[in-house]
Amino acid sequence: MRAFILDTYQKSGILRLGNRPEPAVGDEDVLVEIHAAGLNPLDSKIRDGAFKPILPYRPPLILGHDLAGWVVRVGANVRRFTAGDEVYARPRDGRVGTLAERIAVHEDDLALKPRNLTMEEAASIPLVGLTAWQALVDRAGLRKGQKILIHAGSGGVGTFVIQLAKHLDATVATTTSTANVDLVRNLGADVVIDYKTQDFDKVLTGYDVVLNSLDGDTLHKSLSVLKPGGKLISISGPPDPDFARQQGLNWGLRQLMRLLSFGIRRKAKGRGLAYSFLFMRADGGQLSQITALIEAGAIRPIMDRVFPFEATNEALAYLDTGRSKGKVVVRLK
């Protein structure tokens, strides 16, 4: 089968279009013919080698964390899917590789595709949808009437988180550039901070939750926005000891994670706040709940561009500019 292959870690490196063996299908696996694959900054970071110490990958490997397609066949113990089903997923760590014609996905990671979305739209959802769900529902426990600041509201994660936060009846503030103010307002943002002309930490106060996806400077400034008891959740790091334990990292790496996050954890604790790093996990059950919200019209996909499969390297280069509004997707079929 055709696939885009990462032969070596390299900053802004080029993936090679080549042939790989057909995926092996275990008893709990579902073989999926991929129609479209979403791209994420995580793909770029893995390509660049940023996650070498903490993720179980060794080149050559196939990148890609989002898929939408059709079930080809199922393993002996699979009961929830049959050949021909339209599905979508974010495969679990260690088994990614959606920039290929087919992939074997564990049944527990898979969900039926929302009926009201195209394959391309569905492929834009899993990673950002699960990130939003696990940040707002699992980690923050966001409730009606609470206030949340979402950084980078016009990006792939931000556009989804804004909509989910509004569905949960929270008051939403977000940061974005001048060109994207109307986009985030239309998604439901109550307060919009144009970072080109305003400093969010001088405008906002008394927030319950901040979701950070930007740099360390933004992370530290976000502490001043939160009220006592507030939660600072970061999907861009630094990783913390809880993450290291969940990943089963060795003692040395656990100590490194502790050191990397020591400064922000100490500052947060000193202000009566909680800091945590979120690295989303695959979960077909949560994805099914997201499907229900999409089919009910509570959340809609926000897509920037769809590239042909052959232009995957160009799509990644475009994603790397940081200027996309919503998700970037490649179409295989």
Automatic annotation (TrEMBL):
Keyword Oxidoreductase attached: yes
- SUPFAM superfamilies, from UniProt? GroES-like, NAD(P)-binding Rossmann-fold domains
Q: Where is the Enoyl reductase (ER) domain?
A: 13-330
Keyword Oxidoreductase in the entry? The reply is yes
User: What are the entry keywords?
Assistant: Oxidoreductase
Q: Name one GO molecular function term.
A: zinc ion binding
CDD domains tied to this protein: MDR_like_2
One Pfam family cited in the UniProt record for this chain: ADH_N
User: What domain of life does the native source organism fall in?
Assistant: Bacteria
Per its record, how is this protein called by name? NADPH:quinone reductase-like Zn-dependent oxidoreductase
Q: Specify the taxonomic lineage.
A: Bacteria, Pseudomonadati, Pseudomonadota, Alphaproteobacteria, Hyphomicrobiales
